[in-house]
Amino acid sequence: MAEPDLPRLSRTIGDPTRMGMLALLMEGRALTAKELAYGCGVQPGTATEHLKRLQRDGLIESTAQGRHKYYRLATAEVAHAVEALMVVAQPVPVVSPCRRPAGALGAARFCYDHLAGELGTRMTAVLLERAFLVTDGEALDVTERGEAWFSNFGIDTASLRKRRRRFAYLCLDWSERHDHLGGALGAAMAERLLELGWIGRQKHSRVVSISELGHQALAREFGLVIGSPEE
């Protein structure tokens, strides 16, 4: 009978550089070894060895494209585990020049491919308050009322349920200490907001920018006021 090799996993993610790489990949996009090396303050040769270890242990995967190899988190479960560790980790001052200010990360960011920070938690709270979502422990489900709302919003929940990925669950946010929406439904919500132009990705960062249109729409549709509209 096989058991999870937790000691090996703890040694892998216990290294500051490897944990830093996982945190950078929480952006949800693929990054090169050079980008990850720069982000963690190590030499490219050193980064390569760390990436090999992360890949051997099934935490990341790579794709070759032209002369470059791109790395990303292996699964949504890995992202969920990293976010969970961020919840219990003690906060420390961030001095890395490549990191975004804590305020921007706290306002709105990606947790792998779904929305986190103040935007993610407050939007999830509204969906629960309006009874579009209901909880069953950590799991979430969509109510009949919610099915109609998500359909009108441009999200096909029926197709999301057919995916192998978990449909929807509560993901505890490390900065807000409240839950945001994870799973296939959370990813679909983030993708829909991108399609509508309400939010935008920032290059090599998990920070989410909210457009002027997005500020107006979030206030109208969800009653949310987060930060200030772009100048």
Average pLDDT score: 87
* Count of spatially separate domains: 2
Count helical runs: 11
Binned, the helix content reads: 40-55%
The outline comes out as globular
How big a fraction of the residues is strand? Answer: 15-25%
Low-confidence stretches: 95-101
The biggest beta sheet, please?
3 strands, antiparallel
Order of helices and strands: HHEHHEEHHEEHEEHHEEHEEH
Strand runs, count: 11
Measured distance between first and last alpha carbons: 60 Å
Radius of gyration: 18 Å
- Major sheet: arrangement of strands: 1-3-2
Secondary structural class:
alpha+beta
InterPro entries: ArsR-like_HTH, HTH_ArsR_DNA-bd_dom, HTH_Metal-responsive_Reg, WH-like_DNA-bd_sf, WH_DNA-bd_sf
Domain HTH arsR-type: 1-93
Pfam family, one: HTH_20
Organism: Franzmannia pantelleriensis
